[in-house]
Design a protein that fits this description.
The chain is α/β, with parallel strands linked by helices and 264 residues long. The protein has 2 domains: 8-189, Rossmann fold, CATH 3.40.50.150; 198-262, Helicase, Ruva Protein, domain 3 (Orthogonal Bundle), CATH 1.10.8. Helices cover 39% and strands 20% of the residues. The chain has helices at 18-27, 45-53, 67-72, 90-94, 109-122, 135-142, 152-160, 198-208, 216-223, 228-234, 237-240, 249-259, and strands spanning 14-15, 35-39, 56-61, 78-82, 101-106, 126-134, 161-169, 174-175, 182-189. Helix 1 crosses helix 2. The protein starts with 13 loop residues before the first strand and ends in a 5-residue tail after the last helix. The mean pLDDT is 95. The structure holds S-adenosyl-L-homocysteine. S-adenosyl-L-homocysteine binds at residues 10-15, 39-43, 45-46, 60-63, 84-86, 106-108, 111.
Length: 264
């Protein structure tokens, strides 16, 4: 057993149950033709099983105290990178992969959403993301329009791919035990809207939800500085009076396509 001084600042909550670890890898659809990027190797429990299922694994870990232990595992098709993944350029990360790759991660909760955004918005090679997230975040990711959990995260994940909750994981499965329950979210990335400017669409969606209780007209005039007259000429009163939470992804795309030339 690894003798390790667990660090709260790195969000270290390790998994050891082999059945659960294997199930996460199955949730990720990892097979012998897959190259995998793992984020947050920790004690290497997930890395070890990944290395048996995948063709190759590149695993990032921020805590250099884990170096000796991870190297001692002697995993043949695995490369460890000791760095903060959030500070690495996507080009550098992807230079380890010839083609597409799958991300699998049990990470600290405070970086799960930034990680999902980083890979969805910047990568052109990622095939899927299978990530342990706080249960509430998982529910936000997969929620549909009209639900109270529906927001920027749900729309943007839907824009880039298909998300589902593969399994719920009790806090009891981790050591040390966190004070929240978790879920594994699997996002199969599909390049569904190659013709839409990613950055512009993201800022448009953020603006639509900037004041949740306000109608679309107010959010577009305040956050995007689009003139009321312009909006009136493009949309019906009914559309402008709706709240962001009632727009499906396709509704947002329709609105975006009409006003994109007015967004800076
Ligand atoms: N995957 C392991 C460890 C999970 S704990 C398991 O399931 O048992 C999360 C791990 O992510 C910790 O080892 C922590 O040090 C690492 N980590 C935290 N922030 C990171 C970052 N920004 N970049 C890379 N690794 C990080």
């Amino acid at each position: 057993m690894l003798n390790h001084n667990f660090k709260k600042k790195f969000g270290q909550n390790f998994l050891s149950d082999k059945n659960l670890l294997t199930s996460i890898i199955q949730d990720a659809n990892v097979g012998k033709d897959d190259d995998v990027l793992e984020i947050g190797a920790g004690g290497g429990s997930l890395t070890e099983i990944l290395s048996q299922y995948a063709r190759s694994v590149v695993s990032y870990e921020i805590d250099t105290d884990l170096k000796d232990h991870l190297f001692s595992l002697g995993l043949k098709n695995t490369t460890f990178r000791f760095a903060d993944i959030m500070k690495c350029d996507i080009q550098d990360i992807e230079s380890d992969f010839k083609g597409g790759y799958r991300v699998v991660a049990n990470l600290p909760y405070y970086i799960t959403t930034p990680i999902i955004f980083k890979f969805l918005t910047q990568s052109t090679k990622v095939k899927s993301l299978t990530i342990m997230v706080q249960k509430e975040v998982a529910e936000r990711i997969v929620s549909a329009c009209g639900s109270k959990d529906y927001g920027v995260l749900s729309v943007m994940v839907g824009f880039y791919g298909q998300a589902k909750i593969s399994r719920y994981v009790s806090r009891k499965m981790f050591y040390p035990q966190p004070n929240v329950d978790s879920a594994v979210v699997h996002i199969e990335v599909e390049n569904k809207h190659p013709d839409i400017d990613r950055d512009k669409f993201y800022s448009f969606i953020q603006s639509c939800f900037s004041m949740r209780r306000k109608i679309l007209r107010n959010n577009l005039t305040h956050a995007l500085k689009i003139k009321g007259d312009t909006l009136d000429s493009l949309f019906s009163l009914e559309t402008l009076a709706k709240r962001a939470e009632s727009f499906s992804l396709d509704d947002f795309i329709d609105v975006f396509n009409k006003i994109k030339d007015y967004i800076d």
